[in-house]
Amino acid sequence: MGELTAEAVVDRMVPREPQVSPDGRWVVFVNAPAGHPGERPVSGLWVGPADGSELPRHLAPSAAEDREPRWSPDSSWVYFLSDRAERGKRQLYRVDPDGGEPEELTDRRAGVTACAPMPDGSVVLVAPEEKAAAADPRVRVVRSPSADAVAAGPADAPPTWDTVDPPDRLWLLDPRTRTVHPLGDFGARHVVEAAARPDGHTVAVLTWSVADREPGRFDPGLDLVDPATGARQDLGVPAHEAGSLTWWRDDAGWHLAYLGVTPPGLIGGNAVFDADGHRNLTAGMSVCPIELAASGDGSLLALFAEGLDTTIRRLDPAAGTFTELLLATGSLHDLSAGGGRVAVVGSTATEPDAVHCGPPGGPLTRLGEPPLRGIRWGSQERLSYRAEDGLELDGLLVLPPGRTRADGPFPLVTLVHGGPYDRWADRFQLNWFRCGQWLAAAGLAVFLPNMRGGMGHGHAFAASVAGDVGGAEFTDLLTGIDLLVEAGVADEERLGIGGGSHGGFVAAWAVTQTDRFQAAVVNAGVIDWPLLAATGEHGRFDAALGGRENSPIEYAANIRTPVLILHGEGDTNVPLSQAELLHHALGDRPHEFVVYPRENHSLRERAHQLDCLHRTRAWFSHLLA
User: Domain named Peptidase S9 prolyl oligopeptidase catalytic: which ranges (predicted)?
Assistant: First the structure.
C-alpha cells in the first residue's frame, strides 16, 4: 500500500454540481483539482450515462474554469459558464452533450454570474450592468450619505453604498439572435438568485439591498417576474440567509420553496420555507435541511443533515411533512433530479467525494472509478456521548493507519469545524484543512467533535450558542477529550487543538482557558467579536454570537501554548486584522504567523494548500512527539 502525500491531497479531482438531464439519461458535473494550479481556478465538465454503464468523459476540454452546468428543458443542450475566452470573466456557452465545440452565447464586458434556461429556448441571465465593467476592480469606495444628501432626503432614508461589487441585474437572452434585454425593475437592489418555474411563465428572484456584505446590511427581498412583460410581484421579506429557490407543485398548482434561517433570531438551524406567507415547513424537526431540488415530476426533494449521516426526503403536500426516501451513511451534497433519478456528490468514511446517481430512494450508483486507490487509510470510528448537562452529542475518531484503540494512548489532535453551524459528517476526512487522514498518517489520533451550535440536530441545538460561544460548546469539546483520555485512546500529556473560522475561534479560546493543550493551530480564527461585527461580512450574525466577554483577545495574556496562526491576506469574512491582534498579543511567546497572499477565507491556490498541510502536520508532530 502507498503512503499519503500532500500532493495527492491537493491534486485529487473533486466533483461538484452534478446535474441530471430532464430525461434522466445523462449526468453532467464539474471536476476540478482541490487546489488551483495557479492564481486562477481550472475546472472542466464531465458527462456520462446516468445508469453508470460507461465512464464519464470530458466535455469540451479547455485550460480554463468551466462551471455551473445547466440542462435545457428538452435535454438537448448543456449550458455552462466559462472564462475560456478571457480568464477571470465568465461568459455563457452551450454544448451538445454528445461533444463538439461549445458555442459562445454572450460577450459581455462585465461577464455573467448565473443562468436559467427556459422552456421556450430563451435563457434568464444574472449579470452586472455593462457600464459597471469600466470601474477599476482594485479601487474600493464605500460612501455613506453626505450631509447634504441626508438633509435633502427623507429623515428615515437608509444609507447608500458604492462597493467593489456592482449589483447584478436580471436579463433575458435569445440564443438565436444573441440579443439581451433587461428583465424586471429592481431599482438599486442586487439580484442574488433566479429560478425559472418549469412551465416558463414566471421567474422567482432573490435580491439583496447591496451587492456585498460590507455595510453589514444585505436585507433580502423575494419577487416573481413575468418573463413576457417584466411585471414584478413582491412576495414580501424572506427569512434570513434565504437561498436555494425551488419550484414544486401539487393539485392546487405551483409553489415556491426556499431555505433560510429558522426564526426567531439570527442564530439557528436552517428551515424550509413556503414563499407564500414564508411559512416554516420543517418546524419542530430535529434534523436540518441542507439543500432543495425539484424532482422533475413536480414534487419537492431535500437533503437533510441527520447527526453524522444524510437523508433524501420528499415533501408530502397533504401531511405537510418530509418523508424519508434514503438514508446515506456519511455526507451527500449538490442534489439534482430529473427523469426519475437523482444525482449527488457523496462521501463515506472510506470513500472520497464521488458523483452518484439512481432513484431517489436508492440504490445510488457511483459514476466513475473510485479516487485515491492504493493508499493506507486510518480507521474512522463514530462516537456518541453526553455533555455535562445530558445533551446527546456525536463525533468521529480517526486513528493512524493499521492501529487500533489497543495501541493507545496516542497523541490526540482535536479539530473543530467552522460555522458554528456546520458539522463533521461520517465522510472521508481529507482536504487542505479538514485533514483528519493527513494527520493520522503521521501517527496522530484525530478527534472531530460535533458540539452544540452545529448542524444535524435541529434548531434548538444550533441556536443554543447564541451570545454564548466558548461556553457550553467548549465544555462539550472537553467532555469528549476526557472520555478519550479515560478510555486510553488519548495521551493527556500530548493534546493539540486546531480549527478554521469558528473552529479557529474555539482553538484560540481553548488556549486562553486552559494549559491542557501542547499545540494549537488557529486558521482564520475570530479573536475579537466586536471588531469582527464591525469589519466582517456577517456583522449582524457575528454580533449575535459573541461579545467582548467571549473574545480570546481579552484573555490572551493567559496563553502558554505554542500557536500557529494561518490567515488569508484578503479574507473578507474574518479579516486579517483578527490574526494580527493575536500575533501582537502573543509578543515573544512561542508562535508562528503565516499570511497567504491573494487568499480569502479559504485557501484555494495549490502552493498554499501544500504549505498549510506540511506546516500544520509538522507543528503538531513536533510539539506532540
Answer: 437-624
The single-letter code of the amino acid at 372 is: L
Q: Which of 123, 40, 129 is nearest to 83 (CA)?
A: 40
574 Cα distance to chain centroid? 15
Which domains, and CATH codes, for the chain? 115-151+158-237 (no CATH), 380-623 (3.40.50.1820)
Strands of 429-537, DSSP E: 445-450, 490-500, 519-523
Cα–Cα distance, 415 to 245 (Å, whole number)? 33
pLDDT, averaged in runs of 10, over the chain (625 residues): 88 96 98 90 96 96 96 97 96 96 96 97 95 49 43 46 73 95 93 96 95 72 96 95 96 96 90 95 95 94 98 94 96 97 97 96 93 89 97 98 96 97 97 95 98 96 96 98 98 98 98 98 98 92 95 98 98 96 98 97 96 98 97
Q: Which of 376, 440, 379, 442 is nearest to 405 (CA)?
A: 379
**Residue in this structure with the C-alpha cell 431555505, named with its chain if needed:** 259
How distant is the alpha carbon of residue 334 from its chain centre? 10
Give the Å distances, CA to CA, from 28 to 31, 55, 357: 10, 12, 11
Let me know the angle formed at the C-alpha of 33 by 30 and 34, rounded to the nearest 5 degrees: 110
**Kind plus residue range of the DSSP H or E element containing 541:** helix 539-545
**What is the number of other CB atoms lying within 10 angstroms of the CB of residue 165?**
16
Residues 270/257, Cβ–Cβ less than 8 Å: no
- Please enumerate in sequence order all residues whose Cβ is within 8 A of that of 459, keeping only pairs 6 or more positions apart, or say none: 262, 268, 269, 271
* Sign for the pseudo-dihedral over CA of 101, 105, 107, 111: negative
| Pairwise CA distance, residues 336 & 302, whole Å | 10
Give the angle subtended at the CA of 222 by the CAs of 217 and 227, to the nearest 5°: 130
Alpha-carbon gap, residue 520 to 511, rounded angstroms: 8
Distance CA 341, CA 332 (A): 15
User: In 113-164, where do the E strands start and end?
Assistant: 114-117, 123-128
395-411 residues labelled b (16+ CB within 10 A) or e (exposed) = bbbbbbbeeebeebbbb
At residue 198, φ and ψ (nearest 5 deg) are -55, -25
Beta strands in 329-419, from DSSP E residues, in sequence order: 331-338, 341-348, 351-358, 365-366, 380-386, 392-398, 410-416
